[in-house]
Amino acid sequence: MLLAFALAELARRKRRTASVLAVYMLTVAPLACLQSVSSQIGDSVRLALNPISQVDRDLYVSATAPTPSRGQAPSDSATALAEEQQASTSNAVLDIANAGKPGQPFTQDIFLPPTIPTSDQDSRLYLAAIPGVVDVTPALTVVAVKRTGTVPMILATYKVPPATVALQAPNGADQALVSQCLQKFIASLPRPTGPPPSKGSSGQAVPIPFTSAYFDCLPPSMREVAIEQQVIHQFLDPPETDFTISRFSISGIDIGKPGIGLLMPDDIVSGHVLHSNNEVVLEEAYASQLHLAVGSSYLVRGTSYLVVGLARPSLTGLAADVYMSLSELQRISDHSGRVNVFTVRVSKIQDLGSVRASILTSMPGSQVESSSDLAGQVQGSLASAAAATHSAGSVILFLLLIAIVTFVVAATSSAMSRRRRDFAILRTIGWTARMILLQVAIEELCLCVLGTCAGLALGLGLIFLVAGLTPPLNSAVVPCGFGEQLCRPLPMQTLHIAAALDWSTIAIAITGALVGMMAAITLAAIRVSVSSPVASLGRP
Amino acid sequence: MALFDVHDLSRVYRRGRERLNAVDIPQLVLRPRESVAIVGPSGSGKTTLLQLLGGLDRPSTGSIQYAGLDLASQPDRSLTRLRVSDFGFVFQQFCLIPTLTARQQIETALSPSSLNKSDRSDRAAGLLEAVGLSARARHLPGQLSGGEQQRIAIARALANSPKVLLADEPIGSLDADTGDEILNLLFDFSRQDRVLIVVTHNQRVARRADRIIELRSGRIALDSAA
Prior knowledge:
The structure holds two protein chains of two kinds. Chain A is of the alpha+beta class. Chain A has helices at residues 2-12, 14-49, 76-91, 124-128, 172-187, 212-216, 220-223, 284-290, 326-332, 352-362, 381-418, 420-428, 433-469, 503-529, 533-537, and strands at residues 58-63, 105-111, 119-120, 133-150, 244-253, 268-271, 279-283, 297-300, 303-311, 322-325, 338-339, 341-346, 366-370, 378-379, 473-477, 493-495. In chain A, the strands form three sheets. In chain A, strands 1, 2, 4, 5, 6, 7, 8, 9, 10, 12 and 13 form an eleven-stranded mixed β-sheet that branches. Chain A has a three-stranded antiparallel β-sheet with strand order 14-15-16. Mean pLDDT of chain A is 76; it is low at 65-74. In chain B, helix 3 (102-110) packs across helix 4 and helix 3 (102-110) runs parallel beside helix 5 (146-157). In chain B, a hairpin with a 2-residue loop joins strand 1 (4-15) and strand 2 (18-30). Chain B has a six-stranded mixed β-sheet with strand order 6-7-8-3-9-10, with helices on both faces. In chain B, 49% of the residues are buried. At the A-B interface, helix 1, helix 12 and helix 15 of A face helix 1, helix 2 and helix 3 of B.
């Protein structure tokens, strides 16, 4: 009865019904379109970030890289890091002379100075003692440079320019001394004992033996020439090389605890986890780049390791290109007994905050991050679109709600005025204000349902239009772990806006329409409550 | 025993600084089972008195006792209940809901009652038959003649078996023959142990009533029962 009455009333007041339906359609449609696009972008962003949302009970602890301010004495940790970096830097120099003979291919792995200070791996005992912590495992992550190429032929030719050294002439005193010395020298010579020289040989001087005693008679300025130190700058043509330099990160993990740490069993997409020191697991994209697969050999510092698995690490902020045994990495990188990341697992997710606080209190200067902290940022057109829908979406949503309320209330107000007589008749025959309001509410609900359905249909058309006009949106997610050297991009996500209505879109559209409906019903309630049968039926 | 007992009743309308005393009745008693015609020229307060007696309006001063209840002091909710259980109204302009069929008009009046849907439907059918419009049950007011519309209005007024039927110029918009038919319906009703109060300026209608009260300027100028 009430529904039939309501539908009959809506049919009777065609203009009002059409205008209210139009309001619902024209506001619900953009609302649905906006929500659908925003929802798809949000889902895509979540999909892009999904890999780092898997490990939710773990904290990652490292020492903070100190940054002393100007004029401030470096702290102990800063000094330690500086010494560690200096030691690593001295090892990081490429020595081509020792790379091999010219023409021979070579590969050199050089571990770069650490950006994350290392600490003794026994520090995990402190962390394990914190209430709420159920497990701790250390890891060492370093960045290395791999240089490959052919040892070049290096040949440099030096030509010394001609020079004349002018000797200083002896002064009078020196000449007297020289003369006196020479006379003594000649006098000391043995005299000849044989017959006097013949005629033919007369006139020839007797040779004087040129010994060191003779030179001793010369003054110092004639015995030695001092040449000042010279700096010679010479441009050398660089040798032709075919060097390729690539940087990669390498993590040493505790292979005895595969269920916790920087590499989880679920991260393995091919092969298996590490079981021994002569094995490595490669990150999937890195392996693909090097054309390596499970069973291949991977060379680090001249040692060949068997690739036993390919991984798609969930902790992309702390992900590495290469995973190997912690002890093996410590050995080859000269970091024996040192680690720089601890994975701390708490008993339940609610303990994350308290455990984090305890770590920061008991280990001043440490840095604690959770998987959510590693989300980093989403970049690219998808990020721009997400930011745009986030900022503009709220404003548009607000404006659309205002529009719904304004227009529906205006249309309802007008209709209420026209229906005063009908309401008076109903009051005269015994209808209460509540019954009349229920009748109006049913009418408004019908309008709301019809308008929302029509609006959703129109919205679907709008989404089709947007989907056709919007270019694909790309995301570049670059989560960073402890230090920029551990930033690495996630696989690119591309979103093609689809013409689809999901439940959230429908829910938002219905919510918007309901807001309008409730505003109309509220207005109707006010009007009906003050209505009087006599005033409406007319006074004498 | 009085069904209505009116004392010092007045109804004043204010239009700016002007006060219009529409009704000013020191005393009036209406008894059960009588039909009363309220007559008088236009603006004499006939309709105002009818609305006051039917609980549609409240007096400015005085009291209207109906079956022991003072209508002037009753809350809206009680007056609404009385309009369902005790009072039925018939107006000159029929006052039908344009979007409801003849049957729905009656069912609408039955909605506030405790009858279930089936009983409401049966009762509506019975009333339509009583007013001779069973064949027009599915017609909208716009598809009915004036007389038919007024019959529907009477059927609607009788839907809850009221004790008092209040009619305001019930044949004012009808031709003579149709008016007679409507009057027959109304006065037949008053013979069923009920009260009929009819406002009219038609002497033909007034003559059929048991009692005639003439109003002039809101005051009772003539009461045939006095």
